[in-house]
Write a structure and sequence with these properties.
It holds the Pfam family Zn_ribbon_9. The chain is mostly helical and 263 residues long. The protein folds into two domains: 110 residues, no CATH class; 139 residues, Orthogonal Bundle (Helix Hairpins), CATH 1.10.287. It is built from seven helices and four strands, in the order ααααββαββαα. It has a four-stranded mixed sheet with strand order 2-1-4-3. A hairpin with a 6-residue loop joins β3 and β4. α1 runs antiparallel to α3. It is rod-shaped, with a radius of gyration of 39 Å. The two termini are 33 Å apart. Bound molecules: zinc ion (ZN). Zinc ion (ZN) binds next to loops.
């Protein structure tokens, strides 16, 4: 079904009013949702790091165990050779056994050196694990505090937000896609999140550029959609002076942050 211009203007005003309230809610939450998300990501990174370090440390410790086993084997062989050496028949056999024992001593020294290297390596990894765990604990505490803060704000505002989003869905049904797209676009580019404004004291309520009397008359007529020639915002009505005096100036310039962090 076709909506009249007046209905579309009314729907636009409604959507704008809802969006401004949503902006206010999001502004209240501030950077908290992003900060919570960042902390959660960082915690996952730290946990992964600790897991990897533990796995590394595990293989370092396995290396050490393996080397210790080898040394045991070398030592057993040396004990065996010492006994053999007692029963040699000539110098040649004695020297051959001696040579093998010397080689085994060398093997033991090499293995011991590798154990020391692995132990040093293990210490570095253990220190890293301790440091990462400390950092992780700190982030967890931060997260807990930030999450509690956010939960509190969310509890206060989530119901309102859901209600507003439902109302918005309903209100946008009166707008065709093209109009809604351009509304969204103007809002994105607007520092205060306002795409739909009224004329106040003869000026656009968004950019304060003067709106010529003829255009003001067109706006009052509601026969077609009138936009501000200067900023492109949709002008829905011309406020009479008394209303201007009474209207609170809350949303005039302070929406910048809330709009900027929407994305
Ligand atoms: Zn304007």
């Amino acid at each position: 079904m076709e909506n009249t211009v007046a209905q579309r203007i009314e729907a636009l005003s409604k959507v704008q009013q809802i969006d401004s309230e949503l902006d206010a809610i999001r502004k209240l939450r501030g950077d908290l949702p992003e900060e919570v998300q960042d902390l959660e990501d960082e915690i996952v990174r730290f946990e992964t790091r600790i897991d990897n370090l533990n796995a590394d440390l595990g293989s370092t410790e396995a290396n050490i165990e393996q080397l210790k086993g080898k040394i045991q084997d070398f030592k057993k062989r040396i004990t065996y050779l010492e006994e053999q050496q007692m029963n040699v028949r000539n110098n040649r056999e004695f020297d051959a056994i001696n040579k093998e024992m010397e080689m085994l001593d060398l093997d033991i020294q090499v293995a011991q050196k590798k154990i020391r290297d692995n132990e040093a390596d293990g210490k570095v990894k253990r220190d890293k694990i301790v440091n990462t765990k400390e950092a992780l604990e700190e982030r967890r505490k931060d997260l807990q505090a930030k999450k509690a803060e956010l939960d509190e704000i969310m509890a206060e505002s989530e119901v309102d937000e859901q209600k507003l989003l439902k109302q918005r869905d309903k209100a946008t049904k009166h707008l065709d896609d093209r109009l809604l797209r351009s509304y969204n676009k103007i809002r994105e580019n607007s520092s205060n999140g306002l795409a739909v404004v009224s004329v106040k004291r003869g000026a656009c309520g968004g950019c304060f550029a003067t709106v010529p009397p003829q255009r003001q008359a067109d706006i009052r007529e509601k026969k077609k959609l009138i936009v501000c020639e200067h900023c492109g915002r949709v002008l829905t009505e011309v406020e009479v002076i008394e209303e201007v005096e009474a209207a609170p100036k809350r949303r005039s310039t302070r929406g910048r942050k809330a709009t900027a962090k929407k994305k």
